[in-house]
Amino acid sequence: MSWGTDLWDQFENLDKHSQWGIDFLERYAKFVKERLEIEQTYAKQLRSLVKKYCPKRSKDDEPRFTSCLSFYSILNELNDYSGQREVVAEEMGHKVYGELMRYSQDLKAERKHHLQEGRKTQQYLDQCWKHMDNSKKKFERECKEAEKSQLIYERLDNDINATKSEVEKAKSQLYLRQHMAEESKNEYAAQLQNFNSEQWKHFNVAIPQIFKNLQDMDERRTVKLGEMYRSFAEVERRVIPIISKCLEGMVTAAKNVDEHRDSGIVVESFKSGFEPPGDFPFEDFSQNIQRTGSDGAIGTPKTEGGKADPKHAVGRTKNKLWLFGKKPKAPTLEDLSHLPPEQRRKKLQQRIDELNKELQKEMDQRDALNKMKDVYEKNPQMGDPGSLQPKISETICNMEKLRSEIHKNESWLAEVEGKHGSRSERRSSADVNHHAPHGRESPEGSYTDDHSQEHRSPPQPDPHEFDDEFDDDDPLPAIGHCKALYSFDGSNEGTLVMKENEVLYVIEEDKGDGWTRVRKQGGEEGYIPTSYVEITLEKNSKGAVTYI
């Protein structure tokens, strides 16, 4: 069948073309994958570069020059730029590469279905042709047998020697063969009609529909490629405004470089406060020469003792002439007197500020220990009050040392500033700040530095109050949270171990005794000193209240 061969060739061509289309789709998907990998690598290298040139530094090492600040601003903008490259890679991965791979799988399944339908249709038509051909051959064979029977009957009928029985037998055989030939003819006609009908359906309905489905599939693949090309460009286009802002930020940082401000910072940082040296005196080496009376009236004035002491005048300024020369090495002294006046003033002020912070911390710890001692005295089951006395004594000793250091450094600072009269004022103001720190008030019944208030007795709680509260099966709901400012060992019964910067849930507010009941994230509950934490209450409890 020539038509079968031609049809098979067409199927082979469509098979190859559809497979080529899918291969091309996957090739573009591979291109997109390599493109997004390049973006990921580029973004990673940019972030590494930014991290390399933005090292971690302490507050003292923070850059102050506009050129440094602008450079770090540029690094921040570059870091944001690298983030946009990561966004491009992520969008390409999800919206382009992932979509292409999913669509490729769908195309493969659809192509396989259409080709299988074509093969099934072709196989069914081949089967109908075989049935028709078999019935045709059978009809041909039966006709030949009928013709042969007719010849035998005619020969016996014309033979005078043939018996009547032989003639009758040949006649019946002829009728049988003619009947079989007629049945074969009818079967052949039916098979031929069926084949022609199926062949018409095959070539006019089934095959065109399959070809149309393959054509639609190929057109949809082409349309999908166009959409993916557009999505590929849109991913890049969407980040262009943000990238432009990053570049504008770099330009703005470049414009913020101020050479006058930078030089002013250098002058402010390194000015010494020294006064310019005076004029060098005239050194007269002719004083020992004998002069006449008239000449003696014009001699240079003599110093006391008859000799000039030029070395003293020169020596006073000799050590200050190292502006562009080698700076003389000076030992590091406690009062920082080896530094120039301005530098010494700054260092002393910085040291005083640090000592004041340490003193405030020690005072908070002392207040907390006194409150804890008060609770232990009222509730002996929670712990021994005497166990806290060594810590309280140690804290008071540390406070006295810090106050002594502050007083000593303030004296040196007053000496540098030349304001000895203001020393007592700063000292009195510092004492006021020490005893009444900003942002914190002593609750009722808490201990202060005034020993006359140490015997103020808050409402006496039930000795077994804490035991009853911890025996509840249902945990109390959290009314807020708190952050630990200091560590707390929680060595006594009913208290909770707490680390610095740890976040806890507040389940009961301070009732005036200086203790707050909290719960850890693991479910452990207990009391901690209120002055050791920064508390934030929820709105549904007592409003958005934040206190320390």
Write the layout of secondary structure elements.
Elements: H1 2-53, H2 66-158, H3 164-238, H4 240-255, H5 259-270, H6 293-296, H7 310-318, H8 341-378, H9 389-417, H10 423-435, H11 465-470, E1 480-484, E2 503-508, E3 515-519, E4 525-529, E5 533-537, H12 539-542, E6 546-547
Antiparallel strand pairs: 1-2, 1-5, 2-3, 3-4, 5-6
Strand order of the largest sheet: 4-3-2-1-5-6
End-to-end gap: 98 Å
Secondary structural class: mainly alpha
What is the approximate shape?
A: elongated
Write structural notes for this entry.
By secondary structure, the protein is mainly alpha-helical. The chain folds into three domains: 3-261, Substrate Binding Domain Of Dnak, Chain:A, Domain 2, CATH 1.20.1270; 341-418, Helix Hairpins, CATH 1.10.287; 480-537, SH3 type barrels (Roll). The protein has helices at residues 2-53, 66-158, 164-238, 240-255, 259-270, 293-296, 310-318, 341-378, 389-417, 423-435, 465-470, 539-542; strands at residues 480-484, 503-508, 515-519, 525-529, 533-537, 546-547. Strand 2 (503-508) and strand 3 (515-519) form a beta hairpin. The two termini are 98 Å apart. The model is unreliable at 293-325, 419-473 and 541-548 (pLDDT under 50). Its main location: membrane. It holds the Pfam family SH3_1. Residues 338-415 form the REM-1 domain. It is found in: Cell membrane; Cytoplasm, Cell cortex; Cytoplasm, Cytoskeleton.
